[in-house]
Amino acid sequence: MTARTGLYLSAALLAACAATPRESTWEPLFDGETFQGWYAYQGGELPNDAWHIEDGAIVALSGRGEIVTDASYGDFELEFSWRVSEGANSGVFYRVDEAAEQVHHVGLGYQILDNVGQGGRPLTEQAGACYGVVPASPDVTRPAGEWNSAAIEVRGDRVAHRLNGRVVAEFVLGSDAWLQAVANGPMKSHPRFGRAPSGPIALQNYHGHTVAYRDLRIRRIPDVGMFGPGRGR
Hints:
Blueprint: H1 3-19, E1 27-28, E2 38-40, E3 51-54, E4 57-60, E5 67-69, E6 76-84, E7 89-94, E8 108-113, E9 148-155, E10 158-163, E11 166-172, H2 176-183, E12 202-203, E13 211-220
Antiparallel strand pairs: 1-13, 2-5, 3-4, 4-13, 5-12, 6-9, 6-13, 7-8, 7-12, 9-10, 10-11
């Protein structure tokens, strides 16, 4: 290969690399002080009787009602921290559709739970699970009152849930295993469950338990063909 040919190849390679989509930078979803970028599910002002901000965290109160982000996300990586009171039950939902009566009728749920205080629940309903469908294992939750770190990664039809540095749930949307799990679980009565290509992020306050969230940040993942077809942005 001549030096001239090598130069052309190097230039072509650089051009290809420049054209390759790259993961975007991290963006905060919560500034620690205000509800900027959030609103009450299906419309409404914040704070309200279900949510407020305390000590740099978004806190669910004794009322009921979900909150969602202004922006929608298809493929993304989301990181956050959560803390529950004893016996508390909540969730972080993604690819939500506000046309649904409840966030969990369409959106996929990262289960937030005091596993000890809610002892006896199936693995598909424990912290880190895709609620009602994919079990979480191992149990690496910290005691009620302590902060847990969590992450959700969605690349096309591939999804992973992490909890305190461990992958606790992985699944492929639309696979035979996924479809069977949905058909045999509590989401079977919601035909649009898990089918939205994109949607806002939602924090659940369905049970009236005290739950806190902080350090929420997200980055969009472009369709780079790593695991399958990308979804809507």
